[in-house]
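Notebook entry, structure prediction.
Reason for the run: the old model in the group folder had no record of what sequence produced it. Starting over properly, with the input documented here first.
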Amino acid sequence: MCGIWGHVSFYNIHGAVLGLRREPGIWPAMAGLIGREILRRRQAESRAREAEKLCAAAQAEATLGRYMVEMRTNVNNALTTVLGNAELLVLEPGLPATVLAQADTMRNMALRLHEVFQRFSSIEKELTVDARESGKKAVRAGA
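New structure, fully documented this time:
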């Protein structure tokens, strides 16, 4: 077998066993080579651990996102009920000013929440379109 320096053979590989021959001047280079390989291995393992952490975090966020999408209709229905009742209270004659102020606050907060859920819907549609476009590009690239 050939070594890394041209035709000089200073090692033999038999299965998982690497046999090295003692040749003058080779050992410092071998030590450097082995050291670099150990460092590369450690760096690769570190990157793999970091990727696993990022993947776990992304999966948790994806689970939360799926739950939000599934519950959006239920929350919107409850929000519509709160908003409608708050608007009816504001229109009710003879209520004390504090009750009207609280009903108006409920109405305003319900409108804010409605805007947040509208943004969720917009983001979902954007992601769906992006995924569809990415799929089309992948099909075109594969063809």
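Summary: Strands lie at 11-14, 17-20.
The old model has been moved to the deprecated folder.
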